[in-house]
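[Q] Does anyone have a clean structure-token version of this?
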Amino acid sequence: MRAVLRSVNRVFLGLIGLILLVLGGSVLAVGLGAPVPSWWIHDSEHDVLLSDAERTRWRDDGWWWPVVIAALAALLLLALWWLVAVLRRRRLAEVLVDTGDGEGALLRGRALEDVLTGEATRVDGVDGAHAHLKGRRSAPEAHVRLALEPHVDPGVALNDFTTGALTHARASAGLASLPVEVRMKGVKRGAERVS
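[A] Here you go.
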């Protein structure tokens, strides 16, 4: 799902960039004296984007400026929200491990994710796994996806994962607790031919 959102984000940004580049380039070309197509909104390089009449048409109306300012403020807030969403780190880079001597050590988040993934794939009936850490470095949260074989009971696989891989990861990192969200799905297998 995240890959789809990333692709949509890139396509959307690419289209907006292309539209702005074409519009800006065409205005620049007309301003530099390029021939103007018949369908273009301006007649020549001396034409202005907004005439005096267009610019001052609603200036005396009391609703005009509040609407313009509100629309621009909403557009700015939407752009800032998008920027924060794009730049926000979704993966936990490091986990703070209590060493018992008052100091702390930092464990790479990827290392803990790899251990969780590796041990989860060794659980009986698990065909594939993927672990992802979120939260704060002092209180990480694990998000795990398990792909289960068709014959496996999900409750047994979940119990094996939590008592095995998850308990081992929590104990080895010295964490008091490691909340986890586990998503399971079945692996589709084709029909087997028996001779």
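[Q] Thanks! Anything notable?
[A] The two ends are 40 Å apart (CA to CA).
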